[in-house]
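Problem statement: downstream parser choked on a complex file, so we are re-checking the raw output for the 4'-deoxy-4'-aminopyridoxal-5'-phosphate run. The parser issue turned out to be on our end (a line-ending mismatch), but while we're here, posting the original submission so the record is complete.
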Amino acid sequence: MTRIDDLPVRDELRGKSPYGAPQLDVPVRLNTNENPYPLPEPLVERIAERVREAARDLNRYPDRDAVQLRTELAKYLTNTGKYPIGVEHVWAANGSNEVIQQLLQTFGGPGRTAIGFEPSYSMHALIARGTGTGWIPGPRNEDFTIDLAAAERAIAEHKPDVVFITTPNNPTGNAVAPDTVLALYEAAQAAKPSMVVVDEAYVEFSHGDSLLPLLEGRPHLVVSRTMSKAFGAAGLRLGYLAADPAVVDAVQLVRLPYHLSAVTQATALAALEHTDTLLKYVEQLKAERDRLVAELRATGYDVIESDANFVQFGRFTDSHEAWQKILDRGVLVRDNGVPGWLRVSAGTPEENDAFLDAVREVKKELE
Ligand code: PMP
């Protein structure tokens, strides 16, 4: 049998594992920060309609620049972000993972580096590796906030080409204060200047506002967003960014032609027509997230304050053992490899009840 290492793969890929949150068939899946609510039926109908229209033109390549979709995304950002965004500031791709990949292909790559403050979204490092960008694991405080002085020192020392700031952060759930983002931007400009990518995949769930207004006068700042979480459309694969129009021009140097299929564009446009309904689910999820925080604390767990649709809780002597015990009770949560902690995504009230019952039992068992 041929194994990967028998192939002439790039040295930096040897012995590595692919991204892999387990996709297990259990009654309650709260491990990948998905939105638990299926799309409402009228939206499903509208998607079918728009995809049917798009199908009539599938003999042609799609709009390479996805202008209509980017225009609607820009309107959504303007309406919700307290800052005017035009189509020329927006770029879209297949999930924000692809947005990040395009950014690293454009601003990273061989001989260049990117930094992120860990623990954070593991794909930043993996996409860096895939694009030949050197990865620098930056520091965080014990309580998972960014240690600003240490982060500034790391930026000054390594002079990375790309700085990732995930806010709200995954897996810890906490948001980064705008002042901290501004200070890191300044540090990155002084050191290089580098591009600063603010990953706002979860911002719709935040108690605070989006950092979009910081784009004003900062051409090296990029805000990355997704329809996977707040829009409940992880299966759609639609991510986007807002930045200076020059950034939008720059990523077009690396994007594959026609990367966003006509079916994707049609589906995303249908979903955007239903923004108001979808954002009501976000409100329910925020309330459930707050309930999870309160009830976990009442049960005696440590919980990191969350601005996302998930909660990091602990502490466990052996988080993998705790993960398994919760799974034995039919509930799948996430062990991100942060020692002592696990992460649970906010589900429906019934799913969250099942999770809370499970962790109450596990707490007793582990005592
Ligand atoms: N950024 C963060 C912080 C995430 O947690 C995720 C998804 N888990 C993504 C980006 C990627 O999302 P998508 O590719 O589905 O847009």
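For whoever reads this later: The first strand starts at residue 28 and ends at 29.
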